[in-house]
Design goal:
Layout (H helix, E strand, L loop, with lengths): L7 H15 L13 H13 L5 H12 L3 H6 L7 H8 L8 H13 L19 H7 L18
Helix pairs in contact: 1-2, 1-6, 2-5
Protein backbone atom coordinates (compact mmCIF):
# COMPACT_ATOMS: atom_id res chain seq x y z
CA UNK A 1 0.00 0.00 0.00
CA UNK A 2 1.41 3.43 -0.91
CA UNK A 3 2.37 5.84 1.85
CA UNK A 4 0.17 8.83 2.61
CA UNK A 5 3.13 11.08 1.88
CA UNK A 6 6.88 10.92 1.37
CA UNK A 7 7.59 12.74 4.63
CA UNK A 8 10.19 11.51 7.08
CA UNK A 9 7.47 10.78 9.64
CA UNK A 10 5.54 8.67 7.13
CA UNK A 11 8.67 6.72 6.12
CA UNK A 12 9.62 6.15 9.75
CA UNK A 13 6.08 5.03 10.57
CA UNK A 14 6.15 2.50 7.72
CA UNK A 15 9.55 1.25 8.87
CA UNK A 16 8.35 0.90 12.49
CA UNK A 17 5.28 -1.07 11.35
CA UNK A 18 7.45 -3.46 9.34
CA UNK A 19 9.84 -3.93 12.28
CA UNK A 20 6.92 -4.69 14.61
CA UNK A 21 5.73 -7.43 12.25
CA UNK A 22 9.19 -9.02 12.00
CA UNK A 23 9.43 -10.25 15.57
CA UNK A 24 12.61 -11.14 17.42
CA UNK A 25 14.32 -14.40 16.35
CA UNK A 26 16.60 -14.41 19.41
CA UNK A 27 15.93 -16.49 22.49
CA UNK A 28 15.04 -14.36 25.51
CA UNK A 29 17.97 -13.98 27.90
CA UNK A 30 19.61 -11.51 30.24
CA UNK A 31 22.20 -10.85 27.52
CA UNK A 32 19.50 -9.50 25.17
CA UNK A 33 19.84 -5.83 25.98
CA UNK A 34 18.94 -4.24 22.63
CA UNK A 35 15.64 -4.63 20.85
CA UNK A 36 15.25 -5.50 17.18
CA UNK A 37 13.59 -2.09 16.87
CA UNK A 38 16.72 -0.31 18.15
CA UNK A 39 19.01 -2.38 15.91
CA UNK A 40 17.04 -1.79 12.70
CA UNK A 41 16.41 1.89 13.46
CA UNK A 42 20.08 2.28 14.41
CA UNK A 43 21.15 0.87 11.05
CA UNK A 44 18.59 3.02 9.25
CA UNK A 45 19.76 6.14 11.09
CA UNK A 46 23.38 5.61 10.05
CA UNK A 47 22.33 5.22 6.41
CA UNK A 48 19.87 8.10 6.58
CA UNK A 49 22.43 10.45 8.12
CA UNK A 50 25.08 9.07 5.74
CA UNK A 51 27.53 8.80 8.61
CA UNK A 52 29.17 5.60 9.75
CA UNK A 53 30.04 7.21 13.08
CA UNK A 54 26.59 8.76 13.66
CA UNK A 55 25.63 6.32 16.43
CA UNK A 56 28.98 6.65 18.24
CA UNK A 57 28.61 10.42 18.25
CA UNK A 58 25.02 10.14 19.53
CA UNK A 59 26.12 7.79 22.33
CA UNK A 60 28.79 10.32 23.39
CA UNK A 61 26.30 13.18 23.16
CA UNK A 62 23.86 11.28 25.37
CA UNK A 63 26.51 10.60 28.01
CA UNK A 64 27.45 14.32 28.08
CA UNK A 65 24.04 15.95 27.97
CA UNK A 66 21.46 13.18 28.36
CA UNK A 67 20.03 13.93 24.91
CA UNK A 68 20.76 12.77 21.39
CA UNK A 69 19.27 12.85 17.89
CA UNK A 70 19.12 9.06 17.60
CA UNK A 71 16.42 9.06 20.27
CA UNK A 72 14.60 12.25 19.31
CA UNK A 73 14.64 11.77 15.50
CA UNK A 74 14.58 7.99 15.10
CA UNK A 75 13.01 6.83 18.37
CA UNK A 76 15.81 4.58 19.60
CA UNK A 77 15.36 3.60 23.24
CA UNK A 78 19.02 2.54 23.47
CA UNK A 79 21.86 3.09 21.02
CA UNK A 80 23.52 -0.20 20.05
CA UNK A 81 27.06 -0.36 18.68
CA UNK A 82 27.70 -1.24 15.05
CA UNK A 83 28.78 -4.76 16.10
CA UNK A 84 25.60 -5.26 18.13
CA UNK A 85 23.52 -4.06 15.18
CA UNK A 86 25.27 -6.54 12.87
CA UNK A 87 24.76 -9.40 15.32
CA UNK A 88 21.03 -8.73 15.52
CA UNK A 89 20.45 -7.94 11.84
CA UNK A 90 22.30 -11.04 10.67
CA UNK A 91 19.57 -13.11 12.33
CA UNK A 92 16.68 -11.27 10.66
CA UNK A 93 15.04 -12.12 7.36
CA UNK A 94 15.32 -9.06 5.14
CA UNK A 95 12.01 -9.99 3.52
CA UNK A 96 10.28 -8.41 6.54
CA UNK A 97 11.48 -4.95 5.51
CA UNK A 98 10.57 -5.36 1.86
CA UNK A 99 7.10 -3.91 2.45
CA UNK A 100 8.72 -0.53 3.22
CA UNK A 101 10.50 -0.57 -0.14
CA UNK A 102 7.27 -1.53 -1.93
CA UNK A 103 5.34 1.26 -0.17
CA UNK A 104 7.93 3.89 -1.07
CA UNK A 105 8.17 2.59 -4.64
CA UNK A 106 4.39 2.66 -5.14
CA UNK A 107 4.17 6.15 -3.65
CA UNK A 108 6.92 7.43 -5.96
CA UNK A 109 5.27 5.71 -8.90
CA UNK A 110 1.77 6.95 -8.01
CA UNK A 111 2.93 10.54 -7.63
CA UNK A 112 4.77 10.45 -10.96
CA UNK A 113 8.30 10.83 -9.59
CA UNK A 114 9.58 7.81 -11.56
CA UNK A 115 8.36 9.03 -14.95
CA UNK A 116 11.54 10.97 -15.65
CA UNK A 117 13.55 7.74 -15.38
CA UNK A 118 11.66 6.14 -18.25
CA UNK A 119 13.02 6.40 -21.76
CA UNK A 120 11.16 5.01 -24.72
CA UNK A 121 12.92 3.73 -27.78
CA UNK A 122 15.59 1.19 -28.57
CA UNK A 123 17.05 1.17 -25.08
CA UNK A 124 14.00 1.12 -22.83
CA UNK A 125 14.72 1.77 -19.16
CA UNK A 126 12.07 1.42 -16.50
CA UNK A 127 12.05 1.58 -12.71
CA UNK A 128 12.53 -1.65 -10.78
CA UNK A 129 9.41 -3.67 -10.23
CA UNK A 130 9.25 -4.67 -6.53
CA UNK A 131 6.94 -7.61 -7.30
CA UNK A 132 9.54 -9.11 -9.63
CA UNK A 133 12.24 -8.68 -6.99
CA UNK A 134 10.06 -10.32 -4.33
CA UNK A 135 9.22 -13.20 -6.67
CA UNK A 136 12.93 -13.88 -7.09
CA UNK A 137 13.28 -14.11 -3.32
CA UNK A 138 16.47 -12.08 -2.94
CA UNK A 139 18.26 -12.77 0.33
CA UNK A 140 21.37 -11.44 2.05
CA UNK A 141 24.67 -13.25 1.63
CA UNK A 142 23.55 -15.00 -1.55
CA UNK A 143 25.12 -13.13 -4.44
CA UNK A 144 23.28 -13.89 -7.65
CA UNK A 145 23.54 -12.38 -11.09
CA UNK A 146 20.36 -10.97 -12.56
CA UNK A 147 19.95 -9.25 -15.84
CA UNK A 148 18.29 -5.87 -15.98
CA UNK A 149 15.41 -7.51 -17.84
CA UNK A 150 14.42 -9.54 -14.75
CA UNK A 151 13.73 -6.29 -12.91
CA UNK A 152 11.74 -4.51 -15.61
CA UNK A 153 8.13 -3.69 -14.86
CA UNK A 154 5.70 -5.92 -16.76
Amino acid sequence: MPLASLSFASLLGSLNSAIDEMGDPRRPSNATSYSVQDAVLGAFSAFFMQSESFLDYQRQSNSRSGQDNAQSLFGLAQIPSVEQIRNILDQLATRGLFSVFVSVYRTLQGQGYLERFKQRGDNEKQPLNPSAIAAMGLRRHQPTRYTHRSFLAP
